[in-house]
Recover the amino acids of this structure.
């Protein structure tokens, strides 16, 4: 059955806690509402018929109506999140006043990353909305409408760009397992041969399968994962470039700086300043 809002409700807000191994039983879609959630803990991969993407603690994830999707774990961390569901007419005053561009772009982007300071602010906003929702007072929906508008503008203004990895084709269980291994061991000397051996496939066949399903080589994907973790450490810690290089598998600060500039167009120092 398609997921729907409860009858008579234009918005619902929940605080979900699930075990690390939780996965949706099948592909699902919402037919009458948008989803927006904040990940408190955990690492997840969402698969759609045409595109997949991962998200982690501190990220905001969004799904528009009629998006078939399937969510699976990417680590052994428990999955905890805030989830807000709301009908299109609930944000009509906001769209009428601001226009469609903000909502359209955010839901096209699907995943937003933030600096540590912004994460704390946005997490607090989700918690305050949950508390307001639980009051269930006569004026609650009106108050939540304004709080949701404020949440969207904060996400729009404080999101970091350029760090979400998308997969353009549905992923097989073999590739999903490989991505899990990469996420757990990206800081090691992980090779294509290691993953092929784990999958029980020849190196050439596994390499072709990986590229066909992800639209990039194993080397490029591993580099993207490492860069994403570098961005997180730059934004959320005061570790040196050399310390971050050793922690993310780049081995040397100069090599990290070269790869980071090639992927993001910024030096690590520039990215750190911008994210703060």
């Amino acid at each position: 059955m398609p997921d729907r809002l409860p009858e008579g409700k234009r918005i619902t807000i929940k605080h979900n806690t699930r075990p690390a191994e939780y996965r949706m039983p099948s592909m699902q879609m919402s037919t009458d509402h948008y989803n927006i959630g904040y990940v408190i803990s955990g690492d997840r991969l969402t698969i759609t018929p045409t595109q997949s993407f991962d998200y982690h603690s501190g990220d905001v994830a969004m799904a528009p109506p009629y998006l078939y999707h399937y969510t699976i774990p990417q680590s052994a961390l428990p999955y905890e999140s805030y989830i807000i569901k709301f009908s299109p007419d609930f944000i009509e005053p906001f769209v009428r006043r601001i226009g469609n561009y903000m909502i359209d772009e955010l839901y096209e982007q699907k995943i937003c990353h933030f600096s540590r300071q912004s994460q704390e602010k946005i997490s607090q906003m989700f918690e305050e909305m949950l508390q307001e929702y639980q009051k269930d007072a006569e004026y609650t929906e009106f108050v939540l409408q304004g709080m949701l508008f404020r949440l969207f503008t904060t996400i729009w203004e404080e999101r970091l760009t350029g760090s979400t990895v998308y997969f353009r084709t549905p992923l097989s269980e073999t590739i999903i397992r490989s991505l899990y291994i990469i996420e757990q061991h990206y800081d090691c000397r992980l090779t294509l041969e290691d993953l092929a051996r784990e999958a029980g496939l020849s190196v050439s066949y596994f390499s072709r399968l990986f590229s066909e399903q992800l639209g990039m080589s194993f080397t490029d994907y591993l580099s993207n994962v490492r860069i994403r973790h570098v961005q997180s450490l730059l934004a959320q810690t005061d570790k040196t470039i050399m310390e971050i290089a050793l922690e993310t598998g780049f081995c040397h600060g100069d090599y990290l700086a070269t790869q980071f500039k090639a992927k993001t167009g910024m030096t690590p120092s520039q990215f750190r300043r911008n994210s703060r």
